């Protein structure tokens, strides 16, 4: 792991990792609540632990449950709340989808929590988290894992996926998304297929198509981003193959004024799944490092 810190002097933080099955179970006790977004759509969030609030925004496929294995690693230090984005999991939905709605959904969860809130966003969830930081002054720190900010069009891939779904090839449609847009390696896709979350990802593949098109409409505003003062940790994998994701991280490094970068060696787009303890340690250290000051 390579760490590049532009936030100033860092302090050592004790990270408590629960040991033993009984303690893990105790730390993993959760509750699910639904909060109305700006347009009234109910957004579900599952929370555990105590301490400063950490809201987690999942990526394009799946839902909040892919973060449950991280709860025992994060809940000793945070009240960790993993939300279902609109149209996923136990959240409601709307006829259309825009990234503005996605950001407003994050803000609804953030504003429902007491005091300042940390936000961690993965992939398209990172775009929603970034945009939410412009809408709420309650977000005190951001963690963004490879948010896709690409200025290009993936409409052809979305159409190919639609045709696959119509032909009954739902799983292949999801694999096509992972191969042609995220550019995850065959080995990582095989590992994803072996996880319990895979069937739910396949079941919700249609939602990914509309989100691809929403991202095609999105335009990152570098000037606007340069005024965002929220301390931000950018995460990426050293083996991430997508040039879109790599350029997005570079763009954020060049524009956000208070940012640092951690590269997970040997990892791709899913380090929270493949190296969860290392992932949790990096996130915890950044969020609880009170001595980190903006440049």
Summarize the structure.
The protein is of the alpha/beta class. The chain is built from 13 helices and nine strands.
| Strand runs, count | 9
Number of helical stretches of at least 4 residues: 13
Q: How does the overall form come out from the CA principal axes?
A: globular
Look at the structure and give the mean pLDDT: 88
CATH architecture call: 3-Layer(aba) Sandwich
Strand content: 15-25%
Give the CA-CA distance, first to last residue: 23 Å
The CATH homologous superfamily corresponds to Alpha/Beta hydrolase fold, catalytic domain
Q: What is the succession of H and E elements?
A: EHEEEHEHEHEHHHHHHEHEHH
Secondary structure: helix percent: 40-55%
Biggest sheet layout: 9 strands, mixed
In the residues, how many domains can be counted? 1
SS-based structural class?
alpha/beta
For the largest beta sheet, what order do the strands appear in spatially?
A: 1-9-8-7-6-4-5-3-2
Estimated radius of gyration: 18 Å
Q: Look up the CATH topology.
A: Rossmann fold
**Segments where pLDDT lies below 50 for 5+ residues?**
2-27, 291-295
CATH class: Alpha Beta
Descriptive tags:
single chain; 295 residues; alpha/beta; Rossmann fold; 9-stranded mixed sheet; 13 helices; 9 strands; 18% strand; disordered C terminus
Structure description:
By secondary structure, the protein is of the alpha/beta class. The chain has one domain: 3-Layer(aba) Sandwich (Rossmann fold), CATH 3.40.50. Helices cover 41% and strands 18% of the residues. The protein has 13 helices and 9 strands. It has a 9-stranded mixed beta sheet, sandwiched between helices. A hairpin with a 5-residue loop joins β2 (31-36) and β3. The longest helix has 14 residues, at 99-112. It starts with a strand and ends in a 7-residue tail after the last helix. The model is unreliable at 2-27 and 291-295 (pLDDT under 50).
């Amino acid at each position: 792991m390579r760490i590049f810190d532009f936030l100033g002097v860092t302090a050592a933080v004790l990270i408590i990792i629960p040991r033993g099955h009984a303690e893990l179970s105790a730390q993993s006790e959760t509750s699910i609540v639904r909060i109305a977004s700006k347009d009234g759509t109910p957004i579900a969030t599952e929370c555990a632990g105590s301490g400063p609030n950490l809201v987690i925004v999942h990526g394009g496929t799946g839902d909040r449950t892919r973060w449950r294995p991280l709860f025992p690693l994060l809940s000793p230090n945070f009240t960790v709340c993993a939300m279902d984005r609109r149209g996923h999991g136990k959240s409601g939905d709307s006829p259309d989808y825009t990234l503005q709605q996605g950001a407003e959904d994050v803000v609804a969860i953030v504003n429902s929590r007491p005091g300042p809130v940390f936000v961690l966003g993965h992939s398209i969830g990172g775009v929603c988290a970034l945009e939410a930081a412009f809408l709420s002054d309650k977000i005190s720190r951001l963690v963004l894992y490879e948010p896709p900010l690409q200025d290009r069009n993936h409409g052809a891939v979305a159409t190919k996926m639609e045709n696959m779904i119509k032909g009954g090839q739902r799983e292949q449609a999801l694999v096509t998304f992972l191969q042609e847009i995220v550019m995850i390696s065959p080995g990582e896709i095989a590992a994803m297929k072996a996880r319990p979350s895979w069937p739910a990802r396949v079941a919700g593949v249609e939602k990914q198509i509309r989100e691809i098109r929403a991202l095609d409409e999105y335009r990152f505003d570098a000037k606007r981003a340069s005024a965002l003062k929220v301390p931000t940790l950018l995460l990426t994998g050293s083996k991430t193959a997508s040039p879109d994701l790599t350029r997005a991280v570079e763009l954020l490094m060049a524009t956000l004024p208070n940012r640092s970068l951690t590269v997970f060696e040997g990892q791709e787009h899913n380090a929270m799944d493949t190296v969860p303890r290392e992932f949790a340690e990096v996130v915890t250290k950044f969020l609880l490092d009170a001595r980190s000051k903006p440049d």
